[in-house]
Amino acid sequence: MIFLIPAIIILILFYRLYYKQRRPIAGGILITVLLALFLLGLCGYALMSPLSPVIWVILGIVALIFLMGPLLLLFSSIALMINGQRMVSREGTRLSNFLPLFLGLIMLAALILFYTLPFFMNVNPVIPLIYSMLAIVVLFFGFLFISFANASALYYFNKPSYNEDFILILGCRVIDGKVTPLLAKRLNRAIAFYEKQMEMTGKKAKFVVSGGKGMDESVSEALVMKDYLLSKGYHKSDILVEEHSRNTRENMLFSKAIIDRLKPNARGIFVTSSFHVLRASLYARDAELDFTGVPAKTAFYYFPNAFLREFIGVLSMNRQTYAIVFAALVLCTMVPQLVFLNMGLL
């Protein structure tokens, strides 16, 4: 019962923040907290009840969850290192392609330290401080990553209606003025939605292709996407071009300006790669563009790297808030230990 009231409050907050205010990250954080409360509730119920087959099952589930944590971290670190090697071999030696490899090594090192440092607690009084700092980093960023994953999973339950006025397609890098496989998946997903809407409701939507010209590109991403749609038989009057944006934020802002000139408060969707939908939805909300994101499939080997970059991107959007919370956790944990250490109690 003690966990029931907080759970109800969290569900009410989740409904308000996620469904009413369209704040997916807040929704992901609340789901993570709710899962933690559920786990604590199971533990409390098992400890306060007489032993029975049901209680043994609950204890087994809880024990399995706690055992799965370190094992999942170990397998994840190995998988990330393997994925990093594949990314480098397939996509080249750009620094961003090494991200899974670096993160896998960091996770493996953190796991080793987490389980070996307790054996050396009495060797040096500084070691407990190092262990506490390591625990804060792992728990804080682990909590945020799980929340981000929950928010991403929740977003897949947002199903747009087939009554949209516009289909906004977010661009990505083009090579030699040609559509890349990643961009082709976005375009084909947008085409599939257009055709499905025509089949179900008969409503004809307009495409909005958004993307400027990068430093290493000979032509804007928007014009390349327009040519692709024209080659598929769509008329140029049904394709709106936004070719000045340099990032996702500008994709949303500049596209909204074009859309509002034609039809204020229009209905629509935006299409981007599956790993990018959540962060793009945050920029859409900031631009006051009330469009639902529709994900295009991503190559399996590419997804971990891209997902990690999106996680870092989301953190950077609210870096001041996260930095303040992290600093508060460090102060609340480390200051008492430093005081005890100075008093000779550690």
Automatic annotation (TrEMBL):
UniProt keyword annotations, A-Z: Membrane, Transmembrane, Transmembrane helix
This protein's GO CC annotations: plasma membrane
Domain of life: Bacteria
InterPro entries for this protein: Cell_Envelope_Assoc, DUF218, Rossmann-like_a/b/a_fold
Keyword Repeat: no
Sequence ranges assigned to domain DUF218 in this UniProt record: 165-313
GO biological process: Gram-negative-bacterium-type cell wall biogenesis; peptidoglycan metabolic process
Name of protein: DUF218 domain-containing protein
Organism of this sequence: Eubacterium callanderi
